[in-house]
Design brief:
This protein has one domain. 33% of the residues lie in helices and 25% in strands. Helix 2 packs antiparallel against helix 3. It starts with a strand and ends with a helix. It binds coenzyme A. Coenzyme A binds next to strand 4, helix 5 and helix 7.
């Protein structure tokens, strides 16, 4: 028998007067598998997430636009899609659609598993655990939910064999459909006409036992 864990690491500067993107925390993680008999542990997956601390930014008078813009093109885009242009809360349609009254945002970047350990729903359980651990104060969790590109393995620091080669537009589309259907089981719904999927944080996610049941 084996046990699986997710180990998350983050970092924050202790210096006052940092850059605006200090209000974004990055979580880099590994999924480990421990042999219950030998106690030996190895890394079998990787996860990555960001949290935008909008409520800390407002307390400290930092513009949320600057926070997101300074961090990355992706957060700049998400700011435009989700937040009031000059405020700290989500735009009215987002608040109505997702009951997103809290201001922080969780961005689930990716999860990848070694091929040997796929098909056991460990990816889904890892995402669920990250939402549980990192989602406090968040009105929304969002993810692009798409197959990772094979050539991104070096950037993600995983062996090439961990990322399937999905060929052609049609192949990528089919993979995205499968992944989106899979993550809908957790409660993710499409964010309007954007490529993003969102998880309303006021709704209870299905318990882990339920996610493990066959569909
Ligand atoms: C995403 C992942 C962690 C999920 O692991 P899991 O919980 O064990 O779930 P599965 O591996 O059974 O994947 C669920 C479904 O998505 C499909 N899928 C997952 N990643 C896929 C990819 N990159 N290309 C094509 N299909 C993919 C699986 O084939 C499976 O489809 P099926 O139900 O028809 O068999 C794992 O599949 C993986 O590492 N994929 C490669 C990396 C990736 O593309 N990650 C997506 C980033 S959001």
């Amino acid at each position: 028998m084996a046990s699986f864990d997710v180990i998350l690491r983050t970092r924050a500067s202790l210096h006052p007067c940092g850059e605006p993107d200090e209000f974004v925390s990055t979580y880099d993680g590994v999924i480990t598998c421990t042999d219950d008999v030998t106690g030996r542990s190895k890394n079998v997956g990787r996860v990555h997430a960001l949290k935008v601390h909008a409520s800390l930014a407002v307390d400290q008078g930092e513009s949320l636009f600057d926070v997101c813009d300074c961090h990355s093109q992706e957060l700049h885009l998400l700011h435009t899609l989700l937040y009031e242009s000059k405020g700290y809360g989500f735009r009215d349609p987002i608040v109505e659609m997702f009951d997103a009254v809290e201001w922080n945002l969780l961005v689930l970047d990716y999860v990848v598993l070694a091929p040997k350990w796929r098909g056991l729903k460990i990816g889904l359980l890892a995402v669920r655990k990250m939402v549980d651990l990192l989602g406090s104060g968040c009105g929304l969790a969002v993810s692009l939910i798409a197959p990772l590109r094979h050539d991104s393995h070096a950037l993600l620091r995983v062996p090439p064999s961990w990322i399937p080669e999905t060929t052609g537009k049609q192949g990528r589309r089919e993979a995205a459909v499968k992944l989106r259907r899979y993550y809908r089981r957790m409660g993710f719904v499409r964010l309007g006409r954007t490529p993003y999927y969102a998880l309303p944080m006021t709704k209870r996610m299905p318990p882990a036992e339920k996610l493990l049941e066959p569909e």
